[in-house]
Amino acid sequence: MSQQETADKRAIQELVDNWAIFSDSGNWERFAECWHDDGWMCATWFQAPCHDFIKARREGFDKGVSIIHFHGGFTCDVAGDRAVAQTKMTISQRAPVHDVLVDVVCTGRFYDFLEKRAGKWGMVRRQPIYEKDRLDVVDPNATLSLDPDILAQFPAGYRHLAYLQSQIGYAVAKGGLPGLKGPEVEKLYAEGKAWLEGADSPGRPDVIK
Question: What confidence score (pLDDT) does residue 207 get?
Answer without folding.
Answer: 56
